[in-house]
Amino acid sequence: MTTTSRARSFDAAAADYAANRPSYPTALLDAVEDLAGFGLAGARVADIGAGTGLGTALLDARGARVTAVEPGDGMAEQFRRALPGVPLVRGDGNRLPLKSGSLDLLTYAQAWHWTDPELSVPEARRVLRPGGALALWWNDSDPRVPWIADQDARLRRLFGGAGTALDFRARFRHLPPALAWTTRQVSWSRRVPLDVHLANLGSYSDFLVMDKDVALGFFAGERERLAGAFPDGTVEETYVVSLAVARP
User: Looking at the predicted structure, is the pLDDT value of residue 4 above 70?
Assistant: First the structure.
């Protein structure tokens, strides 16, 4: 399956994605402003691979003049429902439908890995004004928490040593070397019902493209294990957001 096909697999699960995926902490946007060297209020921003608008909503609330770019039909539909007042254009990071030199900030919230850097880096340079910034971030479960480490080990076995389970400490290893990056990591957590936790996992591309019976068997086992670990039915998920900022 191609990278494009995996990226478009989210369209069929867009409603579940919107309902169950975690957003990001306020401290992340503080870090974006710090590393970019300017405030978001009034800044011209494009959020690429915006999906259902989790990152876009925070940028908009911070006062940015944000435009979303999203290739998928299902994700774009969910975005328009959630953020009807935010402009949305169709496209992707390899071919940005944006004017040259028109932006202060380009953001990729868990979307950069779906691009081809040989195309997306020159596109970022093209659309950013001189002194503008490119910000990439990913939200990963924190494997320093014992129950998360155990779950990650099961995910790695399920996917043959690759896939959904990714240690946040590996996030900066494959940044495009053509750019000078500054990085920061922000820890945070949320408390959600067990059903939301499992639905969040189920919205990951690895599960969306795998055999449904295999996925159902895995989730049945996870439900039983986590019900024992969290008898009140509320799971505390702990995350690390990995942020990388460059001025192309």
Answer: no
